[in-house]
Amino acid sequence: MRRPPLVPLLPAVLLAVWLLLNDSVAPGHVVLGAVFAWLVSAAVARLRPLPAWPRRLHVAIGLCWHVFVDIVRSNIGVGRVVLGAARRQPTIGFLQIPLQLRDPHGLAMLSIIITGTPGTVWAGHDPASNTLTLHVLDLQDEETWIRTIKDRYERPLMEIFE
Amino acid sequence: MSAADVPLWAALPAALLLICGGLLALVGSLGLLRLRSFFARIHAPTMGSTLGAGCVLIASMLTSTALAQRPVVHELLITLFILVTAPITTMLLMRAAILRSDRSES
């Protein structure tokens, strides 16, 4: 059963950005920010008619933590590869990963997570077969990569956006 | 307000974070020099824009929080904008490189 959506993402983020920019949570700024957030959301609604309604935000906290840990870990990994490049050039490679995630916002988040993590870059996505092409800096073990993407990122994103 | 006004509890971790961030950015840039193919080089600068930038921003938050004597979290915005924009360039470069190598093969 689908739970009702929590909050539309765009106005909430815009309000948060407004408050951060002004560095204040005074009631006046909250009201002004809310008005701006609503106006901008209404203005861009025609550009992007599909609003994002994330659910189950507790899943997102776990996901953010996983992403943070993975970014730290892969920074160390890529650093090692770079420093060891004189001895051994990394074995770069492409991976094809079939996805179940269909929601465009979920896919956008997945692309940001994958590309934002050093060592992996989103290299393409085929909407017909829903396969993701992933480019990996040091491809040692294909299975581990596929499992990481699917279990750590894709499943929580599906829970949040679908 | 000068550097001497920053209390030690903020100055020490901030300095450490700045060194870490600088080192990460340096290693990332070094990757541009040392890795041989374009597809390998595209991965290296991400180090500077993720954890490297993160370290510098946390250091900035620490020192400005200590100086203003209240939580200052502006820097989260920079994190958000880097996180949203940096992958787009990387993906565009990646797609362009793939299309070019496809064309040169055929």
Automatic annotation (TrEMBL), chain A:
<keyword id="KW-1133">Transmembrane helix</keyword>
<protein>
    <submittedName>
        <fullName>Na+/H+ antiporter subunit E</fullName>
    </submittedName>
</protein>
<keyword id="KW-0812">Transmembrane</keyword>
<keyword id="KW-0472">Membrane</keyword>
<dbReference type="InterPro" id="IPR002758">
    <property type="entry name" value="Cation_antiport_E"/>
</dbReference>
<comment type="similarity">
    <text>Belongs to the CPA3 antiporters (TC 2.A.63) subunit E family.</text>
</comment>
<keyword id="KW-1003">Cell membrane</keyword>
<dbReference type="Pfam" id="PF01899">
    <property type="entry name" value="MNHE"/>
</dbReference>
TrEMBL record, chain B:
<protein>
    <submittedName>
        <fullName>Cation:proton antiporter</fullName>
    </submittedName>
</protein>
<feature type="transmembrane region" description="Helical">
    <location>
        <begin position="76"/>
        <end position="98"/>
    </location>
</feature>
<keyword id="KW-0472">Membrane</keyword>
<dbReference type="Pfam" id="PF03334">
    <property type="entry name" value="PhaG_MnhG_YufB"/>
</dbReference>
<feature type="transmembrane region" description="Helical">
    <location>
        <begin position="45"/>
        <end position="64"/>
    </location>
</feature>
<keyword id="KW-1133">Transmembrane helix</keyword>
<feature type="transmembrane region" description="Helical">
    <location>
        <begin position="6"/>
        <end position="33"/>
    </location>
</feature>
<dbReference type="InterPro" id="IPR005133">
    <property type="entry name" value="PhaG_MnhG_YufB"/>
</dbReference>
<keyword id="KW-0812">Transmembrane</keyword>
